Amino acid sequence: MSPHSLEFTALRQAESLPTLLAKLKDRIESLLNLSDYHGELKPVLVSTNLVQRLCLATGLGCEEKRNRAELDAINLSDTTYIHDTVFTRMNLLAMWSALVKMRYNALPLDWASTTTLSAIVNAEMLRGAELLLEDDALLSALASTALETSNRVSEQLPILNLHIGTFADGNAQAASLNLNGRDIPNTQILIAGTTGSGKTNLLAVLLQQIRSASVETPFPVNFLLFDYKGEFSDPANAAWLQHFEVQRRCIIDPLHEALPFNPFKDFSQKQNARSEINLYATELAEALLALDRATISANMANRLTEAVIQAYGRTNNAPVSFERIYDEYTALQDPREQSKSDSIKSMLSQLIRSNLFAASDSADLVRSSFIIKMDTFPKDGIIAKAMVYFTIAKLNALYETLPVQTMNDKHVELRHFTIIDEAHYMLDFDNKPLRNLIATGRNKGLSIILATQSMESFRSDYFDFYANAQYPLIMRQQTMNDRVLRDLFGLSGQEFTKLKEAISNLKKGEVILRTGSSTLASSRKFRKIAVTHLV
User: Fold this and answer.
1) What CA–CA distance (Å, rounded) separates 29 from 50?
2) Could you report the per-residue pLDDT of 69-110, keeping only the tens digit for each?
3) Helices (H), 237-297
């Protein structure tokens, strides 16, 4: 038997387990919840991960002798896996490993085999579920568990106070970002740091803190990360995912699979939608031209707008497609020109060939977490820009359908973070979906983290990113812009000189934080933070 911890990764689920878990989950929730919900009352939600852990612990606590026949009788699914975070939650990997080895000490087993370990884990979960479903066993187990529950939804909100490191001034005081306090104007985070400054690790720490604080509450904060450098989606970094309570299936590679939604607005359920479609068509045409930086005539721009309008006419106001827009654009051309390509048709052809988006929605971007692999596309090209632009546009459309966020006296609900690494590629044009999400997303619990190489990237003629960012985080810079620093920190004279000196002396993994954005009261205008090393 190996002296090392077991590898609880990629473990398949027994075919009989989901049914038993669902029955147990329903029973747990019926015991924890009131039978009548009204007003702000909301059911207590119990995650499948939590139920699996409860079953595993109960099963391993049973002292009966284990046998090989029991393992051989387990029928494992070929497609369904047990979430890795069942084991990684609360850093209990070593404990699970020790308990499993103790219970199966007498059996000659191949501990390196994922099939064997899958069978063991499922056998224990099944054993635990069956025990908990017996008579009053579940009630006794819950009664002896230090689990406080509340039927008041406001009392179930997670506190998103992100501990990102320590203040680097000798006192080792924890540095934190309060994201969902009622007194916080917004939750937008801007990160500026040159290559090698530690941006990737800082993003990972922020994600880890957001997810660990919320994922097993009734209000999990999900995320969508545009992975421009491919670090988060790299198989070599698969271990990172356990920090964010997700599995590899959350990674989407648009080179091989379409993003699971239709990016175009749906007007089919709206009365008198003509004026809305006309406005949307104009914005869409302007966006496509801005993404491609195409030099076109006014006639071509008008033709593209009209093509979008006519495409909606063909679908009875249901979502359109790039192919349909292309066909309508061609039909509006002079018959002698229809066989020829122009800059707009060339752009649309690229988008059609890339097959970036699905024809219909098969996933909810707000209620799920995704990492979109971007490193196989030119960062400043139309394909990469279209992916980000239309995905954020889709989030805006979903925003309109969301109910008002939950809140209590001290905290508000956050639902989702969009994280754009290398965000400067999306900031140099009038990006209306991004503007809208930043300006209005707070009202429904949607937020943004933008990371870029230079602080100057956030200066825009179209939107004041600094004024709308609660937490601008400055990392090591190649150059410093005095005007930007004065806008951010409001300093002059000797204090301003000290700020520039502090930034110029930043090491990898260090951040300058405006103290007005910190949860720690201080007379200083800025503080330096040594970010926790995570990845």
Assistant:
1) 12
2) 999 999 998 756 786 668 876 778 889 999 999 999 999 999
3) 274-292
